[in-house]
Amino acid sequence: NAGVMQNPRHLVRRRGQEARLRCSPMKGHSHVYWYRQLPEEGLKFMVYLQKENIIDESGMPKERFSAEFPKEGPSILRIQQVVRGDSAAYFCASSPEAQMNTEAFFGQGTRLTVV
Amino acid sequence: QKEVEQDPGPLSVPEGAIVSLNCTYSNSAFQYFMWYRQYSRKGPELLMYTYSSGNKEDGRFTAQVDKSSKYISLFIRDSQPSDSATYLCAMTPSGPGNKLTFGGGTRVLVKP
Questions:
Q1: CA B7 to CA A58: how far, in whole Å?
Q2: Best residue of B25, B37, B99, B102 to probe chain A, by most A CBs closer than 10 Å
Q3: What share of chain B is helix, strand, coil (3-state, %, to 5)?
């Protein structure tokens, strides 16, 4: 059973370009969480999605950032018109359901560098 | 003030020593408390989680939660060089598979 797959692992974008980060959850998992990790900091929650639904986007910046988790295919985190401050590691985690004793598994992350 | 505070370290110990890590938090709604290990340029890996107050042991790892003091700890016995990593505490009002609030992480270096 493959783990949470994120791609690309590394992404370089120039200021003003768009970044698309993909996350394929573990098989059977229908809950996806995105987190951002700035250098030397812990992870900060961004958004929680289930298939075709955004459940909680309280951690998403109001502009330029969007996320989706379609019925088919991976979850996508999209950053439009990237700026230097968007440079960070972006992790997604998946869980089968948000119940009491179910842990979420993390992917290896996508490291975004904005030049 | 951050919801979860964690000393960034680095914490350097000799091989075989006990590693002691801790976090404090301010949100009394937190019920589940997790410890993650993160190697450089890798994703976080769950070590163990505890529900509410109390102790939990798993091999060389012991987690303690004191909700009255809003203080959690992780102890690593007989530390090995392979334990060198960043340790992140995380917590949530609901289950461990839910939205997590993380501490900033403590870098640990176990020297042979």
A1: 26
A2: B99
A3: 5, 55, 45
Chain B touched by A38 (CB under 8 Å): no
State whether residue A104 sits within 8 Å of chain B by CB.
Answer: yes
Chain A positions touching B96 (Cβ under 8 A) are 101-104
Interchain pair A98, B96: CB under 8 A: no
Q: Could you check whether the bond before residue B44 is cis, i.e. omega within 30 degrees of 0?
A: no
A-chain CB neighbours of B4 within 8 Å are 42
- Over residues B35-75, the pLDDT tens digits come to 999 999 899 999 998 988 889 999 999 999 999 999 999 99
| Tens-binned pLDDT, residue by residue, of chain A (115 aa) | 579 999 999 999 999 999 999 999 998 888 999 999 988 778 999 999 998 999 999 999 999 999 999 999 999 999 999 999 999 999 999 988 755 567 889 999 999 999 9
| B18 backbone dihedrals φ, ψ, rounded to 5° | -90, 130
With an 8 Å Cβ cutoff, are A98 and B46 in contact?
no
Q: What is the per-residue pLDDT across B81-101, written as a single tens digit (0 to 9) for each? A: 999 999 999 999 877 667 899
B-chain CB neighbours of A35 within 8 Å are 100, 102
Tokens describing residue B78? 């007989």
Nearest to B69 by CA among B28, B100, B31, B8: B28
